[in-house]
Amino acid sequence: xxxxxxxxxxxxxxxxxxxxxxxxxxxxxxxxxxxxxxxxxxxxxxxxxxxxxxxxxxxxxxxxxxxxxxxxxxxxxxxxxxxxxxxxxxxxxxxxxxxxxxxxxxxxxxxxxxxxxxxxxxxxxxxxxxxxxxxxxxxxxxxxxxxxxxxxxxxxxxxxxxxxxxxxxxxxxxxxxxxxxxxxxxxxxxxxxxxxxxxxxxxxxxxxxxxxxxxxxxxxxxxxxxxxxxxxxxxxxxxxxxxxxxxxxxxxxxxxxxxxxxxxxxxxxxxxxxxxxxxxxxxxxxxxxxxxxxxxxxxxxxxxxxxxxxxxxxxxxxxxxxxxxxxxxxxxxxxxxxxxxxxxxxxxxxxxxxxxxxxxxxxxxxxxxxxxxxxxxxxxx
Length: 381
What we know:
Layout: E1 2-7, E2 10-15, H1 19-29, E3 37-43, E4 46-47, E5 61-69, H2 70-78, H3 88-103, E6 122-126, H4 144-155, H5 158-167, E7 171-176, H6 179-189, E8 197-200, E9 205-208, H7 221-233, H8 242-264, H9 274-278, H10 281-284, H11 287-299, H12 305-320, H13 336-375
Parallel strand pairs: 1-5, 6-7, 7-9
Antiparallel strand pairs: 1-2, 3-4, 3-5, 8-9
């Protein structure tokens, strides 16, 4: 039977009537000695095997020939694998290790030596790399490793952990804000050098500016905590309205009182007081004044009297409940279900009062505008 062998783009004609004769003819006609080359001949999608019958082929059928050097195959089998080329199993292991590093492994601890809540937590940490800064780093620029440690310190701060648990917050990513973000804000809005953080999609990610303007160090820890609390408030309230500032004041108060309780209990973290590690020893001496000052600095204006009254009401309510946040964990001796319902009712009442005050302010503004229109040009300068 006349058959056509195709090898390296060339066609060679042979005559054979069995698989053995086809293979032998291929070795001879293609000058590929059987002791140096292994041939693989494919006919109708199947490889010809010695001892097997030749499939039904038409006269002049085309067969594809592939050849492998026996010595090259043996070298490949006996040579060591390239250490720079990882196997699929090694790739999976490396990916798992990177995922664990990003999320913060169990063996990764901060100066607080505490861990986050299992459910209400920051799921991932993302520091900035030097390439993000848009400028050449100097020898005094802290490494991304140090930025990651600072993010972990913020996330495992006992007071922050308590707030996350009590408020049932869960944040996808706690990240270092790229300094370039502030430069973009400066170009778009003018001024710049004021963007300290932002919250994306109500907690999908929170970015906090960790570094100083000259990139030579990190901002003071209490300032970073204030920025983080500010952004956590955006988990519930987007705009900077009265509800937002009241919530921010609550979070700041909860933070300070949590550390005050830890200090009163005699808790130490690696031999240091929580007030010392958090840098809030002076603030806890007058929590109300510290909260009002922090909120006034953030909103660049003091709280109005109605907001101060709401804050005082929150202090009074939570102090009766043992210092826990409204909507938070139950105090000792309360049943879980009863305390939870009581907290929900208290939170609903508080928010209803805040809405009432906001509506009252809006009505007063509308009445004032209406009076201005009726007054016909009185000077209100």
